[in-house]
Write a structure and sequence with these properties.
Length: about 400
């Protein structure tokens, strides 16, 4: 595929991602409130639903990644995934109890079958010198779509109510599915690499360590719902919740591409280290402001801005490292397997966080997460990156 055509395809993927996140983040800021206050679930149930959703993400990405490599197809998984996300939001709109949320959450997160094939397609279209930048650009468009989605949420959720807002949120993802289906051509270049089946011998030492340390980090990296609910516990009005999430998303959108480009220059490990250290700092900040009772808007704004920087740094570099360390013919499978490991750990992670919250105190998950993050940093030292050629 020619250079200009590759850039245009990356842009189309990014636009579709923007549209999908525009729809999904119309509801994500109020998701924990919808589950706990409207449908009456407790924090343990919320953690279980979120954790189950993350686990479904991992399994769906692993399966779609394997099938994408085996069938030499990327496109079908991408547009179908966007369509599934749209249908799930229609289901949320008509839910009147928390029990059916398990099914619609599975449908919603199952739509992530798009992720591994799409990320592999981005890597297929990239070079060593611009892969981090391309993943950063994709993530920036993800977050930019989320910014607009959150703004719609803030402006209209009290006026429209949950049902109508959820139905409106389904529309952008339908458009994204149509964009990929009608305007993106299948890349023929990656199809030249023969699929030889999956085997542990394809996982080199560095990739295994990367899987392990991110799994440990993920065990303590509870869902954003806990942070949003904790800010409400600190005494902030419900109306502030979408605004806090907006700050996080704007920041993540702003820094994703710069951090992606930075990883192309200084290396992936250093950027990943920055993201881990930021998360530890965030956990400690929550602990400190709780004990010192310094609950003011400035401190919460700073925490959510740092949270956005942390996510903006981590997400692109994770995908870039996996893509570089994986065999080309197994790129989607490896990306899917990586997400599967993280997602399978996400179920006990959110459940543990919810249990620690309910049985000990709301700060316990932050202590637990900080400790596991230090272990992940230790293991990061043992990874040897692929050498990048000069541009």
């Amino acid at each position: 595929m020619k250079k200009d055509e590759s850039k245009n395809t990356v842009r189309k993927f990014a636009i579709a991602s923007f549209l999908n996140d525009l729809g999904s983040d119309m509801i994500y800021p109020i998701w924990p409130l919808f589950v706990t206050e409207v449908l009456g679930a407790n924090m343990t149930i919320l953690g279980l639903i979120d954790g189950l959703g993350d686990t479904v993400v991992s399994i769906s990405q692993a399966i779609s990644g394997y099938l994408s490599d085996r069938l030499k197809k990327r496109k079908i998984f991408i547009w179908l995934g966007y369509l599934m996300g749209s249908l799930s939001r229609i289901g949320y709109a008509f839910t009147i109890a928390w029990q059916p949320l398990f099914f619609f959450r599975i449908l919603d997160r199952g739509g992530k079958i798009r992720s591994s094939p799409r990320d592999a397609a981005i890597a297929d279209l990239s070079t060593t010198q611009n892969m981090g930048a391309n993943f950063g650009f994709l993530r920036a468009m993800d977050n930019l779509g989320a910014v607009f989605g959150i703004l719609v949420c803030i402006a209209f959720y009290k006026l429209l109510g949950y049902k109508i807002l959820f139905l409106i949120a389904a529309i952008p993802s339908i458009i994204a599915a149509m964009l990929i289906f009608g305007w993106v051509n299948e890349n023929k270049e990656f199809q030249k690499h023969a699929f030889k089946g999956l085997s542990f011998k394809h996982l080199n030492k560095n990739l295994i360590i990367l899987f392990l340390l991110n799994g440990i980090f993920s065990l303590g990296f509870f869902s954003y719902s806990f942070i949003l609910i904790y800010t409400k516990k600190l005494g902030f009005d419900t109306g502030w919740i979408p605004i806090f999430y907006l700050i996080f998303t704007i920041t993540a959108s702003a820094v994703s591409m710069p951090f992606g480009k930075l990883s192309d220059v200084i290396g992936r490990k250093k950027v990943m280290l920055i993201s881990f250290l930021l998360w530890i700092f965030i956990c400690l900040l929550f602990i400190v402001i709780s004990y010192l009772s310094i609950f003011n808007l400035s401190s919460i704004f700073i925490i959510f801005a740092l949270y956005g920087i942390q996510k903006g740094a981590l997400d692109p570099v994770q995908k870039t490292m996996v893509s570089e360390l994986a065999p080309i013919e197994l790129r989607a499978s490896t990306l899917g397997a990586f997400q599967m490991v993280q997602g399978l750990i996400a179920l006990p992670a959110s459940f543990i966080a919810g249990t620690l919250w309910d049985t000990l105190n709301p700060l316990a998950p932050f202590y637990f997460s900080a400790i596991l993050s230090f272990i992940a940093i230790f293991l990061l030292y043992f990874i040897k990156e692929n050498k990048r050629e000069a541009a």
